[in-house]
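Table S2 (continued). Query chain:
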Amino acid sequence: EDLIPNEPMVVTITHNGYVKRVPIKSYERQKRGGKGKVAVTTHDDDFIERFFVSNTHDTLMFVTNMGQLYWLKVYKIPEGSRTAKGKAVVNLINLRPDEKIMAIIPTPDFDESKSLVFFTRNGIIKRTSLNEFSNIRSNGVRAIVLDDADEIVTAKIADVQTQYIMIFTSLGQCIRFELEKTRDQGRSTRGVRGIKFKIDTDFVVDADVIDSEEQEILTVSEKGIGKRTTIEEYRLTNRAGSGVIAMKLSPKTGNIVGEVLV
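Corresponding output:
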């Protein structure tokens, strides 16, 4: 590893599971209004699902719907041209049948002051010290004990700047509570309730970690409706409550499908 230059790479992962890395210097700076350049060549039924910039010495943590966590050094991802398709991620990490990648988290280290926060479809939240995942294994590890019929929706890194947790549901609920309302737990534990559903058929679709009330969050619905709101507009409550209405839903909006900090 010491012989490999530690330089920034653009990592792209497609919906069908193809991954590649391209040196960031391959993308020339352009003026506003420029045409841009092709970032990846995909099949007609494929598209870029995730992309981020990470250094070659960083470790990528892949969190799956089944609660497993896998590791991959960025430099082990084949470097390709901007137009290359990439390599199937199943050839790089030992995914089980029916496992789906729900989160990819780059990290330069496993600092014990940071935590991995896991969110499940049924409203469970679990916080584990990042240091618990420093012992890299080729077959991955179980990161959380899941109830029957539950699965991971997403996972995030919380650090010393993180103040709040926000959880969003399909039927328009959102809860915001302080990170300190959860404590670090070991890998072989279930976690605690993060949100209580008002309707039994509801479920978690997305969640995030928040540094400041001054940040803004964009909530998006099935029909492409977006709502941009400051964090402070979501009332601060205790963990395991029902929260507040994030978006008024109708047949024109459809249900909530996700959110992103902006």
